[in-house]
Amino acid sequence: MTSKELSKEKINLLKKAGWYEGRQVEIEEEVRLLEERGFEVSEKVKEYLREFNGIHIKIQDPYFEDEIDEHYIDVEDAMGDAADRYMVVLYEKKVKENLVFVGGMDNDNLILMISETGKVYCSVGKVGNDIWEAWNVILDVTGKNKVDYWQELREF
What is the pTM of this model? Predict the structure, then answer.
C-alpha cells in the first residue's frame, strides 16, 4: 500500500500530527537508544522511523463518545526508562523475525512494533504488511479495517 491509497481523512490526520510527504527526521539518538536496549534496527525500521518518529495522532474513539484514542510512533516515548528487547521476544517467536518496539496504540494499551522486513504488529496481532496498511488500520474509525489477531494469523 502507498500513501496515495489512504483516504483524504487519514492523510489529513497524519498531516495534522506533523507528517508530510518526504518527511525525514534525524533518528540517530533513537537508533542508539534502541540498540542500547538490545534491539537490532534494520534498514526498513530506520526508513519508517525517519518518516514517522515523533508522530502522535489523537482521534475520536468510534465506540465511546467521550474518549480520544492516541496512537503514536515515538521511540523515546515508547521506551521510557524501562523498556527493552525482552518486551518483544514472545512476539518474535510468533513471527520468526526481529521486532523493534516503536510506539503505542489505543492510549498505550497496545505496544506497536515493526519487523525487520517492515511488517507492523501490535500486542494483539498484525496491523499491516507495511506502514501504510498499518496506518489504514490504526486510523480507521469505521471498524472495517482491523488487526489480524494472533489466533487468526496463519503465517507462523
Answer: 0.90
